[in-house]
Amino acid sequence: MRRSPLIDHLKTCVTLSEEELSEILVFFDSQTYKKKETLLPEGKLCDKLFFVEKGCLQLYFIDSLGNQKTTQFAMENWWLTDFLAFQKQTPSNFYVETVEKSKVLSISFSKHQELLGKHPKMEKYFRTIYETAYGAALMRIKFINSLSKEEMFCMFRDSFPEFVQRVPQYLLASFLGLTPEYLSEIKKKQLS
Amino acid sequence: MRRSPLIDHLKTCVTLSEEELSEILVFFDSQTYKKKETLLPEGKLCDKLFFVEKGCLQLYFIDSLGNQKTTQFAMENWWLTDFLAFQKQTPSNFYVETVEKSKVLSISFSKHQELLGKHPKMEKYFRTIYETAYGAALMRIKFINSLSKEEMFCMFRDSFPEFVQRVPQYLLASFLGLTPEYLSEIKKKQLS
């Protein structure tokens, strides 16, 4: 069987035989991308769901001033797309781009539907993934509405230390709603 | 069979026999609450998932200055809880409270697990619910990071007109991250 980190990730949530795992993997395409490659552009039909085997993706949009704003990152074992547009098969409201060289699995909407139909255990897997992601998004909105920018950075650094090391600082600043200069000031202050 | 709006909502997503629907409903408790009743307090084990049959709930927290901040509302056919705490069976990071007199179904974590085990079609239902909710939360974070407070209000009013009519203005202001005075100013400006 082709090896993929997805197999281990599936096993953390659902019990699947080796045969089932093999069958499931067939639904996915695997591709390696360079840093800063666009996997899905804004405005194009959102027909792909991505799983990061290695590397890092970001979900971003361009604001009215032309600034790139990061809404979500996805590192190893994370899923990413414009989930609403994927579900409704409408144009994407975001870009999906690699932050670093990445190995990514992708699945189209029709293949995803077929996968769920043939392997209903995958419903449990995705239910768990989305339940966690939605719960975390509500916590993030709570933090946005209660923490200062400095507190946001500290909480994020303490929760995801590897992440803060790996992601370029201008993207981290964009994700936290800061200017890169202000993030740099906060980091200096934290060190002193 | 006991009638519940949940039945119609389930039918929009999954095909279930009348017998299955009856069996599923048995897992839930139904209760009517007065306006401003607390269904789940912050800090208490989050052991309930709520479905609004009639009325409106809010998910809120108290910030460091003692202000009540609304993170999410749920009207008819919406599910609400601290989803992360429910999944992990940890203390809730939010309060769940009625905004108006409400009729609510609730299910405990163990009953929910039992329901999913006995009726795997419910995995598909909840996968769809959480997929939509997570996608919508990412869109909301995009709006928070790109729209002015006035644009946020207009977009929200145009997307959910009934909601803006029904929810008290101080709660709507809290949800949109505004002071009630500023929301009142925006509304006056929009009318003129």
Can you tell me about this structure?
The structure is a homodimer of 192-residue chains. Chain A is α+β, with helices and mostly antiparallel strands and 192 residues long. Chain A is 48% helix and 21% strand. The first copy, chain A, has helices at 5-11, 18-25, 83-88, 109-118, 121-144, 149-159, 161-166, 169-176, 180-191; strands at 29-33, 38-40, 48-54, 57-62, 68-74, 79-80, 95-98, 102-108. In chain A, strand 4 and strand 5 form a beta hairpin. In chain A, helix 8 crosses helix 9 (180-191). The longest helix of chain A has 24 residues, at 121-144. At the A-B interface, strand 5, helix 3 and helix 5 of A face strand 5, helix 3 and helix 5 of B.
Largest sheet of chain A: 4 strands, antiparallel
Shape of chain A: globular
Query: How widely separated are the two ends of chain A?
Result: 52 Å
Strands in their spatial order, largest beta sheet of chain A = 1-8-3-6
> Which structural class matches the secondary elements of chain A?
alpha+beta
Low-confidence stretches of chain A: none
Number of strand segments of chain A: 8
